[in-house]
Write a structure and sequence with these properties.
2 domains; 9 helices; 6-stranded parallel sheet; binds NADP nicotinamide-adenine-dinucleotide phosphate; alpha/beta; Rossmann fold; single chain; globular
Length: 358
């Protein structure tokens, strides 16, 4: 019987971790076991942990007591199946635990996907419970698995952010300020905004990440956080906040005040600098929860049209995804644990895309 290895994270103390080892569970009738083979680790996963309780991310893969299992995006292969229509050897892409295996209880399947219907997941957004069958994905390429795991889940958010802001005609502003501009989510948003003639996109980043961010070529201008005062505060802007840094957000709200037409909170990459106190100036920040927007557009456009538009946009983005990052493989529990700790501390290099393997 093989062993299942899982990284446990203390929910209230994210830098406290331990490895758990247990025998891989045998699937009952209607269940399957999937070996989680390779997955991406980015600041997004740290936000899952940071919001594990408030947004329910610890509920996907429950652990005991006050420990949590981190959700990650990656690829797995079905090793044992007692589900009709799903055979061992099937490769899946989706939202896995930071563990070597996942026991699933599929309650729905189509030629394109399998949906885990485990009791504790049923109330959670469906988008996280659906595993894409790579054999049925026309855009799947084995050689681009790293780009898919690193960017695709973030790209869906970028797609809805761009769509939402354009639908609202940028709230009357001609310029978007985007924080954590060196992040994958921000570069995807900037790439999509660049295709729109009526808006300029300014990337804000740490001074050490300015050169990398400029080199991406998707921003009209890149400015470091400590040079914010060099930007013209008389021009109306929209702020798209990927950093979630309270002091930075407050400075932007204060400088632009009524010229800040909309404040869109998306991320919290600067998770240690988060502030729950609303800014005193400008509009109230509005959190963009991607699954809500996806559901609205799916209802309006239909699922097929939504998927087609997303797929077209993704294909346009792939060249940038390919050249922006050098993929770094982190293999084995020690390297995976260290990568998690580096991401928590923010010491990782934005030019590296970290892919974990067991
Ligand atoms: N609402 C949604 O649906 C949604 C969807 C996708 C992503 N997001 C959020 O967007 C954020 C970015 O995710 P990502 O995966 O794209 O990130 P990423 O590519 O891993 O971002 C790396 C960048 O984030 C900043 N950073 C990361 N960790 C830091 C730390 N501990 N301290 C200070 N800065 C840190 C640095 O950028 P700078 O120097 O440029 O600040 C760094 O270059 C996450 O918070 C994620 O949860 C939200």
């Amino acid at each position: 019987m093989s062993e299942q290895t899982t990284l446990l994270i203390r929910q209230a103390q994210l830098d406290e971790t331990r490895w758990q080892s247990e025998p891989v569970r045998e699937p009952d009738a209607g269940q399957l076991v999937c070996a989680v083979e390779t997955f991406a680790l980015t600041a997004n996963n740290i936000s899952y942990a940071d919001h594990g309780t408030t947004l329910g991310y610890w509920r996907f893969f429950p652990a005991v007591d006050d420990w949590g299992v981190l959700p990650v995006w990656g690829f797995g292969t079905v090793t044992e199946s007692r589900v009709e229509g799903i055979a061992a050897g099937e490769r899946l892409f989706g939202f896995f635990p930071l563990s070597s295996h996942l026991l699933m209880t599929p309650h729905r399947q189509t030629p394109a996907m399998i949906e885990d219907g485990a009791e504790h997941r049923r109330e959670l957004p469906a988008v996280y419970n659906q595993y894409m069958r790579t054999s049925a994905d026309p855009l799947y390429r084995p050689e681009f698995e790293a780009q898919q795991a690193l960017f695709k889940p973030l790209f869906a958010t970028a797609f809805v952010a761009d769509d939402f802001l354009a639908e609202q005609q940028f709230f009357g502003a001609g310029k978007v300020l985007l924080s954590s501009a060196s992040s994958k989510t921000a570069m995807a948003i900037a790439h999509l905004l660049r295709a729109r003639a009526d808006v300029e996109c300014v990337g804000l980043t740490s001074s050490g990440n300015v050169t990398f961010t400029e080199g991406l070529g998707c921003y009209d201008k890149v400015v470091s956080y400590d040079e914010l005062a060099t930007l013209d505060a008389a021009t109306p802007v929209v702020y798209v906040d990927i950093a979630g840094n309270g002091a930075l957000r407050d400075e932007i709200h204060q400088r632009w005040d009524s010229r800040l037409k909309y404040s869109c909170a998306i991320g919290g990459s600067h998770w240690q600098a988060r502030s729950d106190t609303p800014p005193e100036h400008g509009p109230k920040p509005q959190f963009l929860f991607a699954p809500t927007h996806v559901e609205r557009r799916v209802a309006e456009w239909g699922a097929a049209e939504f998927q087609q538009r997303l797929a077209n946009a993704w294909q346009d983005f792939l060249p940038l995804a390919g050249r922006a990052l050098e993929v770094t493989i982190r293999q084995g529990p020690d390297a995976i644990g260290q990568t998690y700790r580096d991401l928590l501390a923010g010491t990782n290099n934005p030019s590296q895309g970290y892919m974990a393997r067991w």
